[in-house]
Design goal:
It is a single chain. This protein has 90 residues and is mostly helical. It is 54% helix and 0% strand.
Length: 90
């Protein structure tokens, strides 16, 4: 490390540069796909089984949750009522 570098970092090593391509939704998704593809088959199966258990648990929690009229009907984001236009059911 050069003397001028330690003056700015307080003697600590410089942090690794940021990979800005990973700061987007697409970049992060691509990184996750690459990491998953690099896993051995056994670890992929373990991860898939864990995801299935989590999905089952969440499915059970939502089925057991009390329903109210204000609860969202889907996980898809909806625009506010004022931007949605006339209600086709009315």
């Amino acid at each position: 490390m050069s003397p001028s570098c330690s003056r700015f970092t307080g003697g600590r090593p410089m942090p690794e540069p940021v990979d800005w391509s990973l700061t987007t939704w697409d970049g992060q998704r691509l990184r996750q796909h690459r990491e998953f593809l690099a896993l051995p088959f056994r670890e992929k199966m373990q991860q898939l089984e864990e995801l299935a258990r989590t999905a089952d648990r969440l499915r059970g929690e939502t089925a057991a949750a009390p329903s109210t009229d204000d609860a969202p009907r889907s996980l898809t984001p909806q625009p506010p009522h004022s931007l949605r236009g006339p209600d086709p059911e009315r």
